[in-house]
Structure of MFS transporter:
Amino acid sequence: MPPLVASSRSFQPRTTLLVLLLAVFAFALLQSLINPVLPALQEDLDTTQNLIAWVMTAFLLSASVCTPVVGRLGDRYGKDRVLVASLIALAAGAVVSATAPDISLMLAGRVVQGVGGGVLPLTFGIIRDELPREKTPGAIGVAAALAAVGGGVGVVVAGPLTDAFGIRSLFWIPAALIVVAAVASRVVVPPSPARNPTPVSWLATVLMAGWLVALLVPLAQASRWGWTSPAVIVPFLGAAALATGWVVVEKRSDRPLIDMRMLRSTAVWTTNLVSLLFGVSLFAVMAFLPIFVQTPPQAGYGFGASVTQAGLLLLPMTVTMFLAGLGSARLAGRFGARQVLVTASALNVVAVVALAVEHDRRWQIAAALALMGVSLGIAFSTMSNVIVAAVRPDQTGVANGVTANVRTIGGSVGVAVMSGILGAHTPADGLPSESGYTYGFAVLAVAGVAALLVASLIPVPKPGATTQGPAVPSG
């Protein structure tokens, strides 16, 4: 082991945590910075609205597949090493996108950036390894909340950065921050105390990638191809077959990408389903609401906002998300995690319904987003700690990694569905109609209602119980 890594043992856990939080923040920032500038990026790349939506979808799809794979590689080769490699890949993908002359290379760069999705499960695992057990739940909650807050910050600062340095700076600046995080991680994060030599199941990886692609592509294109056309139905059937095969392979694997046995715990599967459904609304709103507010009023809706103004409209969500995340642990301790998640889910439904029916004034948008921020801030931190309480200590990292991953999968679905709905309500060479956004937000509200119902099924921990999860092999 090189002396540089060996000497890192002298760093305190607090220093390690700060470096990990920097990595999480840098990842979240790059993930969200381009959301408000999609219309400008579409013009810059001379492409269509349908293709520019894949700038988000390609990233989320890649992250959905790469997140569990990178987590497993961390178990085998060392979380510290794989974290640095993930950050390098994230920076490399950002450079590719920053220099892309057309949409194809832009999408290629976004796919490479999706490898950075592994930063979250690796962070959770390193926190579990390096921090005292009693501090683990709080630290994981902070990391989960920071991932959400970083996304909000990216939306807010995208406009000023674009005005000052140009649209491609939205890739160059986070790339520089990611390089700093990679160097700091190499110096500070201690080597993993344990390794597992079991190889990654590449068959499960291919099957997972296959069913996600087969599901998302027709979802995004169904409005153009027709819901009953073979081009839509055949991929859907293929997605079902591939997903079934993936589940079978995962259940038989000693080291599955996503542990199906762990998911049998009621607390785990309900929390993960709530996370997926929250991801549907979060990523779709973050991707398309900036486009809505930038639409010229001549279209019958929108405010003709600049990129900076669009970001400022989303600022209330970022602020309330951060503040709510800080208070979530106290709320869960007083009222119980299930009640807190049910309340957060209800607030999310109210917020998305408000966006669907009341979006004629800027204050209406800001108020709905502030309410959504409260919902998301409470929910994300609470879900992380529900998982911590529901599994064995050695499963903390992988279990929270799964929760983050299914949220990303939900985001992939949400963006694809919203893109498809808007596509169905967009005339040739025109802008989406207002009804497209109304129907789209209404569908997101349906996902929110489903999250509310599932949250009510989360079991209440028995007094004195430390875990609710079954005894399953660690991930």
